[in-house]
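Subject: for your reference before the review

Hello V.,

The reviewers asked for a structural picture of the protein, and I figured it would be easier to keep everything in one thread rather than splitting it across files. Below is the amino acid sequence we used in the manuscript, unchanged from the supplementary table.
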Amino acid sequence: MGAKSTPLAIKVAIYERLLSGQMSREIGRSYALSQPTVSKYANDAVEELRRICADEASPALLGFLSRTLKIQCFQYPDDDEVRALMSPILEPYLALAESINFAGRESADQPLSTRVSRSTEEEFLQIVSSLAEGHRPGLTPSALLRELVEDYVAQQRNNRSTIAVAPPQEPQEIPVNQPSIDTEALIADVMDAVRLQLEHHGLKPTKSS
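And here is what came back from the structure prediction:
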């Protein structure tokens, strides 16, 4: 069964908290989300608000929503006009978000923090954030974990296949150290044996002068 989609009300609530000056790390802890996911949901909210306000909103509001999320967060606290225009649009979503126990759900972003040390979790999230801001836009910790697990399983499967098809190796003979031969002693033994045979037949070898 696939994961349930995140309600728009939650995304708008996250977006509003970013506009109000809260840090993404704090928001992530409140909703049991990673920082990259917080940013993604806020941008999703912006896209939806642009669509909703496309025909009816004032030029000031449309101009505000057309800016990047980072610029919006800088502008919003000091722009009374924009805040007045945004308030009636955001309020229904914020009220609905309060009735949703989103942090208590079963989250794909939660297992990592419950199984590894805090320092490891933070370092992993930094890696994800760097990738999400670079050549992997929108990457989440759960997506990267899934890729890592799938790659690991595939690697182990290949290793097992390689072991299964590898031909059995021929048993190697263990070399036996040959004893060293005393050549002089061997010759002396042979000569003694020859002398004994000659004497047995009544012959005695002549001694060399």
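For the response letter, the relevant points are probably these. The two ends are 108 Å apart (CA to CA). Residues 8-105 form one domain.

Happy to draft the paragraph if you're swamped.

O.
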